[in-house]
Amino acid sequence: YELSEDDLSALNAEPEPLVEEALPTLAIIGRPNVGKSTLVNRIIGKRLAVVEDRPGVTRDRVNYPAEWAGRDFMLLDTGGWEKNVTGIDLSVAQAAEAAIDLADAIIFVVDATVGATATDEQVVRLLRKADKPVVLAANKVDGPQGELEAAALWNLGLGEPYPVSALHGRGTGDLLDAAMAALPAEMPEVEVVEGAPRRMALVGRPNVGKSQLLNKLAGENRVVVHDLAGTTRDPVDENVEIDGQPFVLVDTAGIRRRVHQTKGADFYASLRTQTAIERAEIALVLMDASVPLTEQDTRVISQVTEAGRAMVLVFNKWDLVGEDERFLLERSVDTDLVQLTWAPRVNLSALTGWHTNRLMPAVNLALSSWDQRISTGRLNSFLGELVAEHPHPVRSGKQPKILFGTQASTRPPRFVLFASGFLEPTYRRFIERRLRETFGFEGTPIQISVRVRE
Ligand code: GDP
Ligand code: GDP
């Protein structure tokens, strides 16, 4: 049994919670058949997880938004990990270690009817080393007669075993209460509200045409979103509608108010740019196409990519570029921005309005890339093929292997690869290039981190 493309797109069509990366992660770990998936299903209400008895089924998603007692969190389901994910084998210990790495708290599930096995002991050692909060679930305690077997699991040294029946729901409330108490109290919030207008920043060095473009985009009907505390005449953000689509333009006050060339103005402008980028989901980086790129331009671009925001590169003042210069200009920009082939480029004139209609398609493309999630199943078949075709070069007799990968978050897309050895930078860049070729990601930086497993 294999998931078809339709199955995959149906699974991927599940609406993503927009504050996902800010939610704490609770991982459910344990060896096969202890009842992890049954527990996951109980927690998320059988909506998404697929319990499949047939062996070799690749479970497509592993990260589910969940809620208990008014608390939102992400539930990391490792149920499918040790099963076959396209040629990549993960031992119970490897799966557990990977999950422990990604989690803020852990529910360790043991089958109370079997008792602690050597594999369970192995996981306990990993848990001790990791020093993350653990709640011990003694599963398959379907009735009071099983309580004694559950109590025997005190021996694992992980504190109180919670006797539960994932199948019938017995005791799962107490277990989840304990798990909620184990989760960190607060996570840094990313201010993204479902259905709210996307937040956009117009950035670039002075005189590239930010005010001009702002006037073009915002038009006459602009609405002030909120006032900076104490300075009621200094509207910071504006609600605008561009091509019928609502946006919040971040820190338009900083654009409208001309920064005078006083001492420290550069520093102030750069700080203000940084803040605007951090408060936005997407940054339009404006450059003046009529003059060569400056170091200041590339610095703004780095600020955006380092902040992990979606990005569109806008070459303004195109009306000043002669017909015969255009081709050469494009080529020199290609050379200057060779590391940024992933960012959409729009040539326009804020003055005449030429090609300003090309802005929104680029913005929407970049935002959807920023939001994009590659399911664990797809990612691992991609990795499996890539590794089979282009294995990591052998170095001093060793060949690092990629064991498993998962997209840990979106906005921007962050990938975590678990490998048996250090992956060379060129090989990581190769993986990023292939990820982009295969899945798009135009307009968003992507982050890849590698965890090495001995
Ligand atoms: P996983 O491999 O850890 O994800 O385990 P599953 O959730 O697939 O469960 C393995 C088997 O144990 C299935 O046949 C479940 O129906 C069964 N099972 C899970 N939880 C319970 C429980 O609380 N009581 C009983 N009696 N059986 C359970
Ligand atoms: P800011 O400092 O980035 O906000 O830049 P401004 O919007 O104030 O523009 C700086 C100067 O460039 C002004 O004189 C604008 O009229 C001019 N300008 C802006 N956009 C264009 C354009 O598309 N074409 C031309 N020719 N001039 C422009």
UniProtKB/TrEMBL annotation:
Annotated EngA-type G domain residues: 24-187, 198-371
SUPFAM superfamilies, A to Z: P-loop containing nucleoside triphosphate hydrolases
Chain residues that bind GTP 2: 204-211, 251-255, 316-319
Any Pfam family hit: MMR_HSR1
Superkingdom, taxonomy of origin: Bacteria
Positions that bind GTP 1: 30-37, 77-81, 139-142
Keywords: GTP-binding, Nucleotide-binding, Repeat, Ribosome biogenesis
Extent of the signal sequence: none
InterPro entries: AAA+_ATPase (IPR003593), G_ENGA (IPR031166), GTP-bd (IPR006073), GTPase_Der (IPR016484), KH_dom-like (IPR032859), KH_dom-like_a/b (IPR015946), P-loop_NTPase (IPR027417), Small_GTP-bd (IPR005225)
Family listed: Belongs to the TRAFAC class TrmE-Era-EngA-EngB-Septin-like GTPase superfamily. EngA (Der) GTPase family.
NCBIfam families reported for this sequence: GTPase_EngA, PRK03003.1, small_GTP
Biological role stated in the UniProt entry: GTPase that plays an essential role in the late steps of ribosome biogenesis.
Assembly description: Associates with the 50S ribosomal subunit.
The protein's name in its UniProt record: GTPase Der
Source organism (scientific name): Demequina zhanjiangensis
Underlying gene: der
